[in-house]
Fold:
Amino acid sequence: MNFSGSFDKNTIGRLVEKSLTKLGEKASPELCFYVGSVVEKLLEEMEADKVKEEMVCAGRHFYNMGFMAGASGNISVRTGSDSILITPSGLNKGSMSSADMLKVNLQGEVIEESVRKPSSEMKMHLASYRHRPDIGAIIHSHPPFATSFAAAGLALDMPVLPEAILILGSVPIVEYGMPSTDEVPEKLIPWLPDHNVFLLANHGALVFGADLKEASHRMETLELYAKVILMARMLGGEKLLSAENLERLKNAFNIR
Ligand SMILES: [Zn+2]
Structure:
């Protein structure tokens, strides 16, 4: 929950005024506004601290899973209409701390002083948030099986496992873009409206979620799905769901 969104300074100010009135005290509008502003800032900081901790946990989790070897991979979470928290560049994602997270605006300017530099793939994150106001978190990693499909230029867009269809949707191959340059978002933008999970050609995987939990589920599901498809191909090839069963699934879960 976004505390600052639910309890802004005006709402808090009104609550202060109400409480004081109940106690028989009179509060000036200036005092109510001041208290409201202080509490709003406090709630924002508490919420940001919680998100930073969640990012640290996600980094450790995906490092331990072998998805973010060395200093690879990056995670970001939207914290406001024009701000995100993003992991730093060049740091092992298994040993980050909350203080390593950077707050940047959607133009990529660091808005809270830090000794760290934001992820070198920040442009990819920013373009995604700008084009998809509905998403709240992004994870980029190099899971071995999904990255093998990305390296082979093979999309995971055939209807095979119901769970993958529901959680991932169709997973396209996004044309190669030189890492950390504008090429990456340029190649990605055409795919953004219709997908939440992507294979970046000759690179790795990218997933979106309404929040970090949903993005994490998608990243794990993607890797399992890639592993299953690879093994199915070793056993003679995956069998697609029939058109009838696919239709039933889509109707039952109300998906496009
Ligand atoms: Zn990468």
The CA atoms of residues 217 and 229 lie 18 Å apart.
